[in-house]
C-alpha cells in the first residue's frame, strides 16, 4: 500500500534525557500540533529531528530513543551538536526566520551556516529517499527544509512531492536580500505542489520565482525545466473536534487543574474580574512586548478597569540559544515587572505571566475561562491559537482580538482586527471587547466557529494531497517527448544510419544561453569545438539559423565553413568567403514610423533596449523587471498593431523580445528553400522560441524537430536547455 511520508524538522514529539531516561513530550508550535492528527490517522511515516543531538544519545540509550520514535511511526535524522548549531539555531532561525518575518535587521548571512544547512537538508533528503517505496508521496514542511524537495526530486523524479511553508513568504524586495535566494527557490521548486497559508504569501513567492528564476507563469502554474509546478494557498486548520470536545469535557470535570483552581480562586475573591488570555511561543514575531504596552496603555486610558481586568500571559520557551530570544526574555520580564509594579493592588496584579509549556488540559482550561483572547503578532504565518480559542468556546461567548498581520486574520474577520503597532487601537479594542453584549459575541463567534469546524486540519491536508495528485497527473500541455533514454538512442541511431543529414540549429536559447545584453551571448570555445566536429563529417550540412543580423554573425562565425541564415531567413551565406545572398526582397522605409515608437517605450522602460537590424527592429526587455516588461510589451504590441498592416509588417514575439519585421520572411520558408536542391535522409531542427515554430511546421514530416525548454510547441521532441543541446550534439560527432 502506498504511503505519505511527512518530513519536517520537528517530529510530533520531542525527546529529552532526564536522569538517563528518555522522555518524550509533545512538540509545541503550529506545524507539529497541526499535523499530528493527519499523521495519526494514516499509514504514513514522519521523518524529522528528535530534538536530541548525537552527543546526547549515549549508545545505551539509543535503543530507547528508537523505540520511543518507532511507537509514533517516526524516523529521526541524526544531527550532531555542530549541525544543530549551524542548521537549526543558525541558518533556519538566525537567517530565514527573521528574514521571512520582515525582521531584516536580525537576519545574519553566514556562509558556514548556509553550508551546514545544505548538508543537513541532504541528510533529511537521504533518509526520505531510503524510505520511499513505489507510489509513495512525500510532503515536506517548512523553512528548515527548503532544499529537500529538489534533493529528493533529483534522485526520484517519479515521486510526487508536496511542499508547505508554515511561515510567511516575504515580498520580493525583502527576499532578494538573501545571498542564496536562487538556490532556495530552486530547492522549493523540486516540489510538484507548493502551498502557503494565504494568497499574499503565494503571490510574493510567484513574484520572486518570476524575477529570480526567470520562469514563465501560467496563472499559478510555473513552467520550470520541463515540469509544471503548481503554487496555491491552503489556510491550515486545527483539529476542531479535539479542542471542542475537550472544552465540553472541561465544563463537566470534577477534578480541576492547578491553573483552573487559581482562576476559580481569583474569581471567588474578585467576582467581577475579567481574564484576557494570550498564548504564544516566546518569539519576537508574536508582538508580546507591544501587547504588554498596549495593556498598560489600556489601564491608563480606562482607569475604571483597574483591579477588574487581568492579562493571563502564557509564553513557551523557544530557541533560547538565539540571542534575540534571550534579549526578548529579558525585555518581557522587565515589562511585566514594570506594569505589575505600577498598577498592582493588594488582591490584584494586572499580569499573570507563565513562562513554560503547558499540558493540553491546562490550555483548554485557559481557553474556556478567559472571555477575551488577545493575539497581537507583528507577523505570523497563520496563528493556530486564534482558531483553537474559537473552537474551545462551547457557548460561543468570548471575544477574539487578533492582529491583522496573522494569516488567520484573513479567515477570522469577525474578530476585532487590530494593527499590533497601534497601541491606542488595541487599548480601545480591549475596552470594546469588555463591553460587548453577549449576543454580538455569539453572532460573530458562530460564523468563525463554523468556518474553523468546516475547514479543519484534516480537510486542509486532504485538499493539499488531492491537489498534489492532480498536478502530477497533469503533464505539460504537449505531445513532445523528452529527448532521453530510448528516445535519444533512437534519434542518435537514425542520425548515424543516415548518409546525408541536415542540421538546422537556432542560436540564442539553443546554442547559447541568454545573457542580459544580446551582444554578450557570443559563442565560446566549447561551441566551436562541437560545431567544427559536426561540420568535419562530409555527410553533414550544418546550418545556423537565427534572428540575429548578418553583421553580428559575420563577426562571430564569418571565418567558419558552416551555412549561416540570419534575420529570420532574410540572408544566407554558405561558408567563409561566400557572399551573403538575399533570400527575400524587402525594404526598411517603414523604420521611420516604427522606430520613434520603440524609442518612446525604451525611454520609459528601464532596462529595455532597441536592436536595429537591416530589415527589422527588435525591442529587448530581458533586463526589465519581468512584470513591468510583460505589461509594456503588451502595450507596445497594441500600439504598433494598427500601424503595421499598411507596410506588410508583422510582430514576432521571441523570448523577452518583440521584433517588427516584414511579413512573410521566416525560418520555415528559409529552411525549406535550403532543402530544395538536397535530398537528405535525416533532418534535425532545434530551437527554443516562437520564431522556430515556423521551421518545425514547414519542414518535412520525417524531420526530427526538437524544442528547447518547456514552452508550447508543435515540435515532436523536447530538450531541457543549452547544456542538454550540447550533450546531444556531441553524440553527432
Ligand atoms: P507558532 O507555530 O508560531 O508557534 P501557532 O499559534 O500557529 O504559533 O501554534 C502554536 C501551537 O503551540 C498551538 O497549537 C498552541 O496550542 C501550542 N502552544 C502554544 N503555547 C503553548 C503552551 N504554553 N503550552 C503548550 N502548547 C502551547
Ligand atoms: C513555527 C514553525 C515550525 C516550528 C515551530 C516551533 O510554527 O513554523 O516549523 O516547528 O514554530 O519552533 P521550533 O523552533 O521549536 O521547532
From TrEMBL:
It catalyses: D-glucose 6-phosphate + UDP-alpha-D-glucose = alpha,alpha-trehalose 6-phosphate + UDP + H(+). One of its GO terms (cellular component) is cytosol. Signal peptide: none annotated. The keyword Glycosyltransferase applies. InterPro entries: Glyco_trans_20, HAD-like_sf, HAD-SF_hydro_IIB, HAD_sf, Trehalose_OtsA, Trehalose_PPase. One of its GO terms (molecular function) is alpha,alpha-trehalose-phosphate synthase (UDP-forming) activity. Its EC number is 2.4.1.15. CDD domains: GT20_TPS (cd03788), HAD_TPP (cd01627). Keywords: Glycosyltransferase, Transferase. Pathway: Glycan biosynthesis; trehalose biosynthesis. Pfam families: Glyco_transf_20, Trehalose_PPase. One of its GO terms (biological process) is trehalose biosynthetic process. Homotetramer. Belongs to the glycosyltransferase 20 family. This is Alpha,alpha-trehalose-phosphate synthase. It comes from Arcticibacterium luteifluviistationis. The lineage of its organism: Bacteria, Pseudomonadati, Bacteroidota, Cytophagia, Cytophagales.
Amino acid at each position: 500500500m502506498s504511503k505519505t511520508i511527512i518530513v519536517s524538522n520537528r517530529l510530533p514529539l520531542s525527546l529529552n534525557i532526564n536522569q538517563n531516561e528518555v522522555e518524550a513530550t509533545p512538540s509545541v508550535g503550529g506545524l507539529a500540533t497541526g499535523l499530528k492528527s493527519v499523521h495519526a490517522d494514516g499509514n504514513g511515516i514522519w521523518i524529522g529531528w528528535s530534538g536530541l543531538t548525537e552527543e546526547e544519545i549515549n549508545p545505551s540509550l539509543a535503543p530507547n530513543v528508537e523505540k520511543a520514535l518507532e511507537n509514533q511511526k517516526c524516523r529521526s535524522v541524526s544531527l550532531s551538536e555542530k549541525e544543530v548549531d549551524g542548521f537549526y539555531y543558525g541558518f533556519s532561525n538566525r537567517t530565514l526566520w527573521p528574514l521571512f518575518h520582515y525582521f531584516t535587521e536580525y537576519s545574519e548571512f553566514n556562509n558556514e551556516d548556509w553550508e551546514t544547512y545544505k548538508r543537513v537538508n541532504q541528510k533529511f533528503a537521504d533518509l526520505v529517499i531510503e524510505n520511499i517505496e513505489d507510489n509513495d508521496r512525500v510532503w515536506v514542511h517548512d523553512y528548515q527544509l527548503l532544499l529537500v524537495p529538489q534533493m529528493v526530486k533529483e534522485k526520484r523524479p517519479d515521486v510526487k512531492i508536496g511542499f508547505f511553508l508554515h511561515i510567511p513568504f516575504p515580498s520580493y524586495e525583502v527576499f532578494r536580500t538573501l545571498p542564496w535566494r536562487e538556490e532556495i527557490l530552486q530547492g522549493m521548486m523540486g516540489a510538484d505542489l507548493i502551498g502557503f497559508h494565504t494568497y499574499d504569501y503565494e503571490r510574493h513567492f510567484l513574484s520572486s520565482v518570476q524575477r529570480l528564476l526567470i520562469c514563465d507563469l501560467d496563472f499559478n502554474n510555473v513552467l520550470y525545466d520541463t515540469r509544471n509546478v503548481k503554487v496555491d494557498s491552503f489556510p491550515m486548520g486545527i483539529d476542531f473536534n479535539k479542542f471542542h470536545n475537550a472544552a465540553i469535557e472541561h465544563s463537566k470535570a470534577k477534578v480541576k487543574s492547578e491553573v483552573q483552581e487559581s482562576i476559580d480562586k481569583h474569581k471567588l475573591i474578585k467576582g467581577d474580574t475579567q481574564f484576557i488570555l494570550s498564548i504564544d511561543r516566546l518569539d519576537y514575531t508574536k508582538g508580546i512586548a507591544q501587547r504588554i504596552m498596549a495593556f498598560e496603555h489600556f489601564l491608563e486610558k480606562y482607569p475604571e478597569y483597574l483591579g477588574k481586568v487581568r492579562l493571563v500571559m502564557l509564553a513557551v520557551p523557544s530557541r533560547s540559544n538565539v540571542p534575540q530570544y534571550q534579549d526578548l526574555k529579558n525585555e518581557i520580564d522587565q515589562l511585566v515587572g514594570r506594569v505589575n509594579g505600577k498598577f498592582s493592588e493588594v488582591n490584584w496584579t494586572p499580569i499573570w505571566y507563565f513562562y513554560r509549556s503547558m499540558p493540553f488540559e491546562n490550555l483548554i482550561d485557559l481557553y474556556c475561562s478567559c472571555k477575551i483572547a488577545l493575539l497581537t503578532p507583528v507577523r505570523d504565518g497563520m496563528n493556530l491559537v486564534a482558531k483553537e480559542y474559537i473552537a474551545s468556546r462551547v457557548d460561543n461567548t468570548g471575544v477574539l482580538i487578533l492582529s491583522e498581520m496573522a494569516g488567520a486574520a484573513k479567515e477570522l474577520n469577525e474578530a476585532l482586527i487590530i494593527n499590533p503597532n497601534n497601541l491606542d487601537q488595541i487599548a480601545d479594542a480591549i475596552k470594546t471587547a469588555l463591553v460587548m453584549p453577549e449576543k454580538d459575541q455569539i453572532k460573530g463567534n458562530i460564523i468563525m466557529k463554523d468556518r474553523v469546524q468546516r475547514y479543519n486540519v484534516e480537510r486542509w491536508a486532504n485538499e493539499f494531497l488531492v491537489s498534489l495528485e492532480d498536478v502530477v497527473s497533469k503533464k505539460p500541455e504537449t505531445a513532445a517527448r523528452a529527448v532521453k533514454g530510448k528516445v535519444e538512442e533512437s534519434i542518435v541511431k537514425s542520425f548515424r544510419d543516415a548518409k546525408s543529414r541536415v542540421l538546422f540549429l537556432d542560436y540564442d536559447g539553443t546554442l547559447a544561453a541568454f545573457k542580459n545584453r544580446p551582444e554578450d551571448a557570443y559563442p565560446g570555445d566549447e561551441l566551436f569545438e562541437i560545431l567544427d566536429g559536426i561540420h568535419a563529417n562530409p555527410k553533414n550540412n550544418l546550418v545556423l539559423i537565427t534572428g540575429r543580423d548578418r553583421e553580428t554573425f559575420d563577426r562571430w562565425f564569418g571565418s567558419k565553413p558552416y551555412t549561416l541564415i540570419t534575420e529570420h531567413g532574410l540572408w544566407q551565406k554558405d561558408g567563409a568567403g561566400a557572399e551573403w545572398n538575399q533570400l527575400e526582397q524587402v525594404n526598411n522605409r517603414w523604420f521611420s514610423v516604427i522606430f520613434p515608437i520603440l524609442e518612446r517605450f525604451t525611454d520609459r522602460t528601464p532596462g529595455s533596449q532597441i536592436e536595429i537590424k537591416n530589415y527589422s527592429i527588435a525591442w529587448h526587455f530581458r533586463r526589465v523587471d519581468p512584470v513591468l516588461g510583460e505589461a509594456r510589451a503588451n502595450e507596445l504590441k497594441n500600439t504598433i498593431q494598427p500601424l503595421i498592416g499598411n507596410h506588410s509588417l508583422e510582430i514576432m514575439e521571441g523570448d523577452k523580445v518583440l521584433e517588427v519585421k516584414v511579413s512573410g520572411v521566416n525560418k520555415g520558408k528559409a529552411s525549406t528553400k535550403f532543402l530544395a536542391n538536397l535530398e537528405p535522409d535525416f533532418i534535425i531542427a532545434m530551437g527554443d522560441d516562437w520564431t522556430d515554430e515556423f521551421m518545425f511546421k514547414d519542414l518535412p514530416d520525417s524531420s526530427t524537430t526538437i524544442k528547447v525548454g518547456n514552452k508550447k510547441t508543435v515540435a515532436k521532441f523536447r530538450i531541457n536547455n543549452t547544456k542538454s543541446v550540447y550533450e546531444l550534439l556531441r553524440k553527432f560527432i
